[in-house]
Design a protein that fits this description.
Layout lengths: L24 E5 L5 E6 H10 L3 E6 L6 E5 L1 H17 L6 E7 L4 H16 L3 E7 L8 H14 L4 E10 L2 E8 L2
Parallel strand pairs: 1-4, 5-6
Antiparallel strand pairs: 1-2, 3-4, 6-8, 7-8
C-alpha cells in the first residue's frame, strides 16, 4: 500500500497564493501588468476573485511583498517551460582524454592532434597525456617537447589550463577551447 509523502513539494506548491499569503499588506500588479498599488490582503484577494484568477506572491522578500493577479496553473506551466529552456541552453562541458607513449611516430601524433582539434571545436576540454614506460622515464624531456609542440599547434583553438603537469610516469596538459 502506497503512503502519501507530505514532505514532497509539488509544482503546484512552489508559489504562495490566495489565503496562504501571510503578509498584512501587499503590492498588487494586475493581470495585464499595471501596478494597482499597496492593498490589504483581503482586498487584493477580492480583486483577484472578481477576475476569476489567483493572487500569487511573486516576490515574497520585498517590503511589502509583491503579488500578481494571474492564472496560477498557467503561471506554473510557463515557469517550468522557462526553466527547461534555460537548462537546454546550458553548456555541457565534458573532459576528453587522449594518451600517447613518448615514442609516438610523427604521423600518429598528427592524427591525435586532429582528434584534439575536433574535440575542441565541439567545445570539449581535452587532457593530453604522455605516458612513460620503463627506461623512457629517463627521457621526460621528449614528453615535454611533444606537449609544448602540441600547445603551439593548438594555439588558435585552445588555451592551456594549468600548464604542464607531472604525476609519476605521466605528463599531461589540459586544453580549454577558446570562445
Amino acid at each position: 500500500m502506497a503512503r502519501f509523502d507530505n514532505r514532497r513539494t509539488y509544482k503546484k506548491d512552489l508559489y504562495t497564493r490566495n489565503q496562504n499569503i501571510r503578509a498584512a499588506e501587499v503590492r498588487v500588479i494586475d493581470s495585464d501588468g499595471t501596478m494597482i498599488g499597496v492593498k490589504p490582503i483581503a482586498q487584493a484577494i477580492a480583486l483577484a476573485k472578481e477576475q476569476d484568477l489567483d493572487l500569487v506572491e511573486i516576490s515574497p522578500n520585498a517590503v511589502p511583498p509583491v503579488c500578481k493577479i494571474l492564472d496560477y496553473n498557467r503561471y506554473v506551466y510557463e515557469q517550468g517551460k522557462k526553466a527547461a529552456e534555460a537548462k537546454k541552453k546550458q553548456a555541457k562541458v565534458t573532459m576528453k582524454e587522449l594518451r600517447i607513449k613518448s615514442r609516438i611516430a610523427p604521423h600518429d601524433l598528427d592524427v591525435k592532434i586532429r582528434q584534439i582539434e575536433e574535440f575542441l571545436r565541439k567545445k570539449d576540454m581535452v587532457r593530453f597525456v604522455v605516458v612513460f614506460h620503463g627506461r623512457e622515464n629517463q627521457h621526460k624531456d621528449i614528453g615535454m617537447q611533444i606537449l609544448n609542440d602540441t600547445a603551439k599547434r593548438l594555439e588558435a583553438l585552445a588555451n592551456v589550463d594549468g600548464g604542464l603537469q607531472q604525476m609519476g610516469n605521466r605528463m599531461s596538459m589540459t586544453f580549454v577551447p577558446k570562445n
